[in-house]
Amino acid sequence: MKHSLVRETIIKTASNLFYQKGYNLTGINEIISESGIAKATLYNHFKSKEDICVAYLDYLNTPFLKNIEDFALSKSKGSEQILALFDFLEKFFLSENFNGCWCLNTISEIPNQNIKIRNEIQKGKTEFLKLIVRLLEINFPNKTKKEVATLSKQVYLIYESAISESHLHQNKWPIKTAKEIIEKIFT
Amino acid sequence: MKHSLVRETIIKTASNLFYQKGYNLTGINEIISESGIAKATLYNHFKSKEDICVAYLDYLNTPFLKNIEDFALSKSKGSEQILALFDFLEKFFLSENFNGCWCLNTISEIPNQNIKIRNEIQKGKTEFLKLIVRLLEINFPNKTKKEVATLSKQVYLIYESAISESHLHQNKWPIKTAKEIIEKIFT
DNA sequence: AATAATAGACAGACCAGTTAGTCTGTTTTT
DNA sequence: AAAAACAGACTAACTGGTCTGTCTATTATT
Fold it and tell me: Considering the domain B1-46 in this protein, what is its CATH number?
């Protein structure tokens, strides 16, 4: 296989497995057999399973952040663009592969001491928070910087519970409830 | 060791390990060596590691539900008793053993197909939701049943994100933010 | 009260399978 | 000709779980 494709193939395969089965329950041997890549090749691209995990988190975070932002921006201005975050989540929830948030899942699987993975997760969440800040600035230009900072954390928190609780209960009521809270906050 | 104490010892030791290290990263051998119980004895009390996990969840859930309810009821009536849930969480967060929510951690570690453990987790969360319903009924007797049902889910969601996000960010700002949302909801 | 029987604790060998990671040697791509 | 792919053997440690056999405390029978 061509060099440039190998790395991508590994990440793609590992990502599917990590997300569906969890990090600890996915073995290196499963990754190589599923992706058709030799073990030595895998370790030529990544020095450890941990490094593949970091790549996995980034591989899912980057398109997620882009897609959810594009989706929100496509809606009419105002609180609609905030609510759109939850409509996006609902579509994700209804897709057959939904298995909760990869970041929250992974953080529950690693020891507290694993700062490499923890940092990657916090980085992704910080990017998400920044995205919410951008949406608030666009849609509520009259709010002060401080108000936006406060509001964005609130929206973030509500989003986070909506994704993890819809996963836990295997039901979309948490997404609906989240939208109720958002509506209360923005009126 | 006396029969009745053996089971308790196993659960207590396993609980500490499962909560601190995670379910998958804790081995049976570690549980037996740490608790000083023979392997055959352990399997005389539990038919599998999975069963120990169920006992672990119950072992932490039961006192948690009792303690947080007692704490809330000790506060003055009104929204104070709801906010008390988050003060209780903050104390928990500041304790040295805090490692997030055992239920949310465990659900991220098990395959979707594991209904035994998933049921136990959903059971614990449902009990927590009922507790919030009780608190709302006591403190807001004028609200209709429907209003209480709606509000309780909102409070529940906010609590859940406060615990998981304070864990993720290793910071108590999510608890503070959660209380801001609660105050908005109840005024 | 003395003896016998049962339950359940103990230690730890053992099983088959899996783990992450290394290494050797060969073939293909650039 | 150099780089990097390939297959896959191999290591040492660990996994959940079973099993054998011993020892001790409680209970039942005489």
Answer: 1.10.10.60
Please check whether residue B85 is in contact with residue B155, taking contact to mean a CB–CB distance below 8 angstroms. Answer: yes
Mean pLDDT for chain B overall: 96
**B101 three-class SS:** coil
> What pLDDT is recorded for position A2?
67
Which of B105, B169, B181, B186 is best to mutate for the A interface (most A CBs within 10 A)? Answer: B181
Q: Is A100–B121 a contact, with Cβ atoms under 8 angstroms apart?
A: no
**Which of these CATH numbers, 3.60.10.10, 1.10.10.60, 1.10.10.10, 3.40.50.1820, describes A1-47?**
1.10.10.60
Q: Where are the domains of chain B?
A: 1-46, 53-185
CATH topology of domain A50-185: Tetracycline Repressor; domain 2 (1.10.357)
- Please list every residue in chain A whose beta carbon sits closer than 8 Å to the beta carbon of residue B177: 150, 153-154, 157
User: Do B1-46 and B53-185 have matching folds?
Assistant: no
pLDDT per position as a tens digit, A96-116? 999 999 999 999 999 988 999
Alpha helices (H) along A36-172 = 39-45, 49-73, 80-94, 102-107, 115-139, 145-169
Is CATH 1.10.357.10 the right assignment for the domain spanning B53-185?
yes
The tens digit of pLDDT for each residue in A132-156 reads: 999 999 999 999 999 999 999 999 9
Rounded distance between C-alpha atoms, residue B153 and residue B107, angstroms: 20
Residue B46 is classified by DSSP as -
The CA–C1' separation of A152 and C16, in angstroms, is: 53
**Which residues of chain B are within 8 Å of residue A105 when distances are taken between CB atoms?**
108
With an 8 Å Cβ cutoff, are A108 and B112 in contact? no
Report the C-alpha gap between B35 and B6 in whole angstroms.
Answer: 9
**pLDDT value, residue A187:** 84
To the nearest whole angstrom, how far is the Cα of B127 from the nearest Cα of chain A? Answer: 13
Contact by Cβ (8 Å): B183, A150 = no
Could B173 and A157 be called an inter-chain contact, meaning their C-beta atoms sit closer than 8 Å?
no
CA distance to partner chain A, nearest, from residue B109 (Å): 6
Q: Quick: pLDDT tens for A161-185.
A: 999 999 999 999 999 999 999 999 9
User: Does this complex have an ipTM over 0.90?
Assistant: yes
